[in-house]
Amino acid sequence: MALPVALTIAGSDTIAGAGIQADLKTFSALGVYGTTAITALTAQNTRGVSGIHEAPAGFVKAQIDAVMSDLAVAAVKIGMTASQPIIEAIAERLSHWRAKNVVLDPVMIATSGDRLLADGAVEAIRTQLMPRATIVTPNLPEAAALLDEDMARTEDDIAEQGRRILKLGVPWVLIKGGHGEGAESVDYLVSADRLVRFAAPRVNTRNVHGTGCTLASAIAAGLAKGESLEAAVKQAKDYVSAAIANADRLQLGNDHGPVHHFHAFY
User: Fold this and answer.
1) Helix H or strand E encompassing 248
2) What is the CA radius of gyration of the chain?
3) Who's near 240: CB < 8 A, 6+ residues apart?
């Protein structure tokens, strides 16, 4: 029986903790065959991002076409989009190929605090990508940026921001609580008629590089395997929580190290 196929459209990370490298590791760990369309090359390590080289928008299109014209892609994960022309190219090809199970992680800032999205591109994410997505997975600062509001602090405010994001045309929103406070890290899944909390103990570690990429690609893996959206989010939350809990075992770098994608294997 053939493995289900997922496509990640994202940037490349030189230390392989985030971006397409994290996505491919996640797909592999969860039993999905991963393919890629690279939007940008980054030069980065655990201390930060020192350089970004965008791919031409036309070449991003060519990569998407090469994969989707040949393989039966069951889910698409979108991460770092870099600029408005690339966003527009992705949106056009998603529409052309009638892509399904699209997981949009609106990557704006790296774990290190470095900006990964060009000025003016947030509006393109709102208008071009979100209406084509099945679910969008912003963290608390990204949810605020999508709405041009202050970051939510209470559960009620988070839920209300989620409902306002739905009005941008996406049927599901998962607002991640990693930037929150308290003993638990709580993610909130919001739809027009649902609010579901996914909680896990907050792990005391600085090795959280790539958590957002990993969670979104884990959701895409679940959807590619035919799981319901809520089931895909639950297994993704469990997977990334375990990857964070085991991150210190890797002992890589001098600052924000990666999570342990293959914690179940070694």
Assistant:
1) none
2) 17
3) 211, 214, 215, 218, 259
pTM summary value: 0.95
Two structure tokens written together for 203: 């792990």
Q: Where are the alpha helices (DSSP H) in the chain?
A: 19-29, 57-68, 84-97, 121-124, 140-147, 155-166, 211-224, 229-245
Summarize pLDDT for 171-222 with one digit per residue, the tens: 999 999 866 667 888 999 999 999 999 999 999 899 999 999 999 999 999 9
Distances (CA, A) of 164 to 56, 106, 161, 192, 211: 33, 16, 5, 10, 24
Q: What type of residue sits at position 118?
A: A
Report the candidate in 111, 34, 117, 55 with the shortest Cα–Cα distance to residue 80: 117
pLDDT tens figures, 237-250 = 999 999 999 999 99
The token duo for 12 is 């490349």
CA 266, CA 20: separation in Å to the nearest integer? 21
Mean pLDDT throughout 87-102?
98
Inform me whether the pLDDT recorded for 111 exceeds 70.
no
- Domain map (residue ranges) of the chain: 5-249
Q: Is 115 exposed, middle or buried (0-12, 13-18, 19+ CB in 10 A)?
A: exposed
The CATH number of 5-249 is which of 3.40.930.10, 3.40.1190.20, 1.10.3720.10, 3.40.640.10? 3.40.1190.20
Cα 232 to its chain centre, rounded Å, is 14
Tell me the angle at which helices 19-29 and 211-224 cross, rounded to the nearest 10 degrees. 40
